[in-house]
Design goal:
This protein is α/β, with parallel strands linked by helices and 282 residues long. The protein is built from 13 helices and 8 strands. Strands 1, 2, 3, 4, 5, 6, 7 and 8 form an 8-stranded mixed sheet that branches. The N and C termini lie close together (11 Å).
Length: 282
């Protein structure tokens, strides 16, 4: 039986996910495959390379660095999160990604992205982060309005959460019969369409399919949450989520708050560790 791991996005709420994943690594819990969305992809890739602590380390180190995330970066480069700094300078020089360990780990790792032309999700399996691997990670976490579409081959891509925020059904279709899901919102959360979404569609008005996907995202997200609940009742998934809303903003610059969210993830996973082990053994 193949066991999968599904990692929701949520920008800096992903520090919760980083804490969960570090506990899993500390207890040598592995999976046959994983699907990461947005922050779930860019932080979750460290699980495949087995670099415990890396995600929280570099996020705290560069949380106030304007090259990492700032309005200045947006004005200067077109990306709120500086593409060259985040996907080249950090992984290749400042806090190195272990490309060899990542490549040699047989676990599948899918980075969910949204095709701007079709408005539909794509799921590249990143066997390696060399070549276009880092570009796929960047695309998965590139929000419209504050990021440029990422060109890969003949296509252009943006944040995977626009089209598939919780890719459980995708993983099941790939043959992963049991899945562990890490969510960054508490139980009972309901997504609503807000004015920010409508405003952001102005920046992608040349992509009508993408605009429709963005306007319907809250419906898709709530439907996926309901599907997760149904599968949880059937015993097919194990869900890890914070008990209450995390004390971080999407673009959190306060290192203390980032550490708090990370520690909440660690504690939440530790509290559920024995239950998770039982689920995996069933």
């Amino acid at each position: 039986m193949k066991i999968g791991l599904v990692l929701e996005g949520g920008a800096m709420r992903g520090m919760f996910t980083a804490g969960v994943l570090d506990i899993l690594m500390e207890h040598n819990i592995d999976f046959d495959g994983a699907a990461g969305v947005s922050a779930g992809a860019v932080f979750g890739c460290n699980f495949k390379s087995k670099q415990k602590g890396r995600a929280i380390r570099y996020n705290i180190r560069f949380s106030k660095d304007k090259r990492y995330c700032s309005v200045r970066s947006l004005i200067k480069t077109g990306d709120l999160y500086g593409a060259q700094f985040c996907y080249d300078e950090i992984p290749n020089r400042l806090d190195k990604m272990d490309y060899k360990a990542y490549r040699e780990n047989p676990m599948d790792f899918y980075a969910v992205c949204t095709d701007v032309q079709t408005g539909k999700a794509v799921y590249p399996n990143l066997k390696s982060l060399e070549g276009n691997g880092m570009r796929w990670l960047r695309a998965s976490a590139s929000l419209p309005g504050v990021s440029r579409p990422v060109k890969i081959g003949d296509g252009e891509y943006l944040d995977g959460g626009l089209a598939d925020s919780i890719p459980l059904e995708f993983m099941q279709k790939q043959g992963f019969e049991k899945n562990v899901i890490v969510l960054t919102r508490p139980e009972g959360y309901v997504k609503k369409q807000d004015g920010g979404t409508r405003f952001m569609t102005r920046f992608v008005r040349n992509y009508p399919n993408l605009v429709r996907t963005m306007l319907d995202r809250h419906i898709m997200y709530n439907d996926e949450l309901e599907y997760v609940r149904e599968e949880e009742k059937k015993g097919r998934v194990f869900v890890i989520r914070p008990e209450e809303a995390l004390p971080v903003k999407k673009t959190e610059h306060n290192p203390k708050k980032l550490r708090i969210a990370y520690n909440i993830g660690r504690k939440t996973m530790l509290d559920q560790l024995e239950e998770l082990k039982a689920f995996l053994k069933e």
